[in-house]
Amino acid sequence: MGSTTLAKGEKEKKHRGVRLWAVAVWLLVWQLGAMALGQEILLVSPVSVMLCLGELVPHWDFWSAILFSFWRITLGFLLACLVGTVLAVLSSRFGPVRDLAAPLMRVIQSIPVASFIILVLIWVPSRNLSVVISFLMVTPIVCQNVLGGISSMDQKLTEMADVFQVPFPRRLRYLYLPQVAPFFRSACAVGLGLCWKAGVAAEVIGLPDGSIGERLYEAKVYLNTPDLFAWTVVIVLVSLVFEKLFLFLLDRLVARLEQN
């Protein structure tokens, strides 16, 4: 089971990988487009963005903004993983819980992010807005994926575990985890990108002091296009690094539990 899961994971990684030559081509297209347009206020070149990043990196305000947003968005994501998983388990065991949770999850997924941000801003201080928004956006994804994984489990294995009265800790480790883990991982892969998009959008609207969203808003107000692009690159890089690191640790954890 463990080797099969790892083999599938490696195969999926190959298909999901981004080729460096493709990135280089798009950077070249970006550079040529900026040179052809000749208006940095409309489209700044990647070279100018890198120079702007070089100016931002040495300052503590740059790192404090990243830490401010990273901590809150990550907290919202982790809370969503926890609550979404617990809600999925309860929904799989208790019909009324599933019936009550279903419309709520649908509503959360249907309401536009901007509307949610404005509504939540009425009740939550702007400093914590990105935590709540990230949590709300990711929870339905985790809940539905984990519930789908539980529902697709082999019923013969669960019946056999009932017959032999297998203790719950052993069921969790050797029966539930291998079958539900791929669904949870898929939810995390989708949720990680969404929580950063929604979290930063919340900061742009709520404007908490010292956040990445505030930096983006200031760059837009003052028509500082290099800064705007530079902070956008920062968001992409931080989100990508966190996603790769989190999924790597998750894969290693699942593999270790399956092997032991």
Automatic annotation (TrEMBL):
First-listed, main subcellular location of the protein, grouped into a coarse class: membrane
Residue ranges of domain ABC transmembrane type-1 in the record: 66-246
Entry superkingdom: Bacteria
Membrane topology: Multi-pass membrane protein
Coiled coil (residue ranges): none
Subcellular locations according to the entry: Cell membrane
Membrane-crossing residue ranges in chain numbering: 20-42, 62-91, 103-123, 129-150, 183-208, 228-250
One BP term from GO: transmembrane transport
Family according to the record: Belongs to the binding-protein-dependent transport system permease family.
Protein name stated in the entry: ABC transporter permease subunit
Source organism phylogeny: Bacteria, Bacillati, Bacillota, Clostridia, Eubacteriales
